[in-house]
Amino acid sequence: MATLKDIYLDYLDCLNRQAFDELATFVDDNIEHNGRPFGLSGYRDMLARDFAAIPDLRFDAQILVSDWTRIAARLLFDCSPKSTFMGLPVNGRRVQFYEHVFYEFKQTKIRTVWSVIDKAGIERQLG
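Given the sequence above, the corresponding structure tokens read:
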């Protein structure tokens, strides 16, 4: 039987392959992100926009902790957003930053996501 960690790593692989048609395997129909009800289609749209803005986007779990219903992760991103990112003029420059994210699962699917991106780390790189 797959653990939540196994399911989560398969989810990250799905994202990295941009296999958005497979998201329903990992994401609940009523997913919420940072307190906002997105639903599966809204979540899929958000991810598609992220990849459009950052073509070399790749989710890399540096730290991963789980219990029976939750995952906590520190994700590393090493990428080149095409233009403005988080209100910052990145404009194609390569930046590295972390996202600290918590997931709550309903059985084997992600139901709730809480996410914080280290914007200050990006600002330091941009000078």
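Helices lie at 4-16, 39-53, 119-126. Try to locate this feature in the token string yourself.
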